[in-house]
Design brief:
Elements (H helix, E strand, L loop, with lengths): L8 E10 L6 E5 L10 E2 L2 E3 L6 H13 L2 E15 L2 E14 L10 E4 L14 H8 L5
Parallel strand pairs: 1-6
Antiparallel strand pairs: 1-4, 2-3, 2-7, 5-6
Length: 139
């Protein structure tokens, strides 16, 4: 049976694909006590009401990792649905302009080679982007 609009919570999340000069991708591990805890993901977070996606991504990465970024371009999007919840994920290509990423909320932070990305336990919505990166479809 389809969800009614009244019972479906919808949120939009922004995430960054950040690569270093060796081509490794920055990944963060969700805290164990949160939804999908322990899974690895592209860093980012929820967009606040009235906030522009690019500003939300810059804010989230400053708050969570202590870095400032430059957003280069949109990459792709994904939709994740579960009972009562629909999440729209917007992925952006970005670079660090200042700071060294550190988990300010207790999350692990790792630079991962593209070939090692598919080995990480990840949220379902990240799977296609992981595949595209690992296969160099997205350089």
């Amino acid at each position: 049976m389809a969800e009614t609009l009244e019972s479906l919570r919808e949120i939009t999340v922004v995430a960054a694909v950040i690569r270093d000069d060796k081509g490794r991708v920055l990944m963060t591990q969700r805290p164990k006590d949160r939804h999908m805890g322990g899974l690895w993901e592209f860093p980012g977070g929820k967009i606040d009401d009235g906030e522009a996606p690019d500003k939300a991504l810059m804010r989230e990465l400053d708050e969570e990792l202590g870095i400032e970024i430059v957003i280069l371009s949109p990459l792709t999007f994904a939709v994740h649905e579960e009972p009562g919840l629909r999440i729209l994920l917007l992925f952006f290509d970005a670079r660090i302009s200042s700071g060294e990423p550190r988990g300010h909320e207790g999350q692990a932070v790792e630079w991962v080679t593209k070939k090692d990305l598919p080995r990480l336990p990840i949220p379902p919505a990240d799977a296609e982007l992981i595949r595209l990166l690992a296969e160099d479809v997205i350089p």
